[in-house]
Amino acid sequence: MKKTRTGLIIETMEAASAAGVTHAARAATVRHGACTVTTVKVENDDDARLFEREKGTYVTVETDRVYRITDNDFESIVTVLADIMRSLMPKTAGRILIAGIGNRAITADSLGPKCVDRIIVTRGFEKVMPELINDGTYASVSAICSNVFGVTGIESAELIGGIAKMLEPSLIIVIDALASTSVNRLCKTIQLSDTSLTPGGGVDNARGKISPDNLGIPVLSVGMPTVMDVGTILSNAGCTEDKARELLGQFGDSMIAMPTRIDSATDIAAKLIAFAVNKALHRDMTTEDILRFLY
């Protein structure tokens, strides 16, 4: 099976089916309001090797609109995302560590940091208002932005692992930008999983894996594809490999494309994801409550 640059398991499954490769994993798709939800469970080692993913549950939420989302659609999508997050989290949660991965200076890679900007951080309540944590009104939440290895010289997995040793969270939520093989999923698809996340994996620049096995802590990974390999675009348009190599010239397989309105797309996606995280972690929190906290 030809390797594709994608962070979405449903695209890996599609590639396997197109190549005639059989597997046990099945995708269950349902419609919820303004989005379509597809759940895939990777339950055996053969499928895990084929998809180059860890065993676990992967949920893909595909939205109808990218840049213009009505208030009703926003609430619908956030509610769906929050429900999925709760289903993938441990039933009992203590401290939560949220890590937004990416380079804020590169818009297509800014999803993680933009999400952290909108997270309601409540660890301080442990000292000043412990009753709000103890009665379950609020989770104890900490959040960090982890810049890329090329900027800091520190792997995100190393940074998160070091902080986790001090905070001892019961769950780590990791948010990062992904790659896609389809323009129809670019900047409008969110994948959630109870397995690991590998920063840079979608663009062949894989760094240290952030996983439950490595950290000894459950991980909820969340991502949205913001870029697409230009070679894949040419291939999807019917271009032969030889012609694609001729067109790409010296850039070969290293050219990546993104929408011109990537700034708006990452802003909206960050708001959707962060508001869903806030609602999933803090009991009975409304959008109005989040806005009062943040602004």
Task: Describe what this molecule looks like in 3D.
The structure is a single chain. The chain has 295 residues and is of the alpha/beta class. The chain has one domain (9-294): 3-Layer(aba) Sandwich (Rossmann fold), CATH 3.40.50. It has 13 helices and 9 strands. Strands 1, 2, 3, 4, 5, 6, 7, 8 and 9 form a 9-stranded mixed beta sheet that branches. Strand 1 and strand 2 (35-42) form a beta hairpin. Helix 3 crosses helix 12 (262-281) and helix 10 (230-236) crosses helix 11. The longest helix is centred in the last third of the chain and has 20 residues, at 262-281.
Q: How far is the first residue's CA from the last residue's CA?
A: 49 Å
Find the CATH topology.
Answer: Rossmann fold
Nearest-angstrom radius of gyration?
A: 19 Å
Per DSSP E runs of 2 or more residues, the count of β-strands stands at: 9
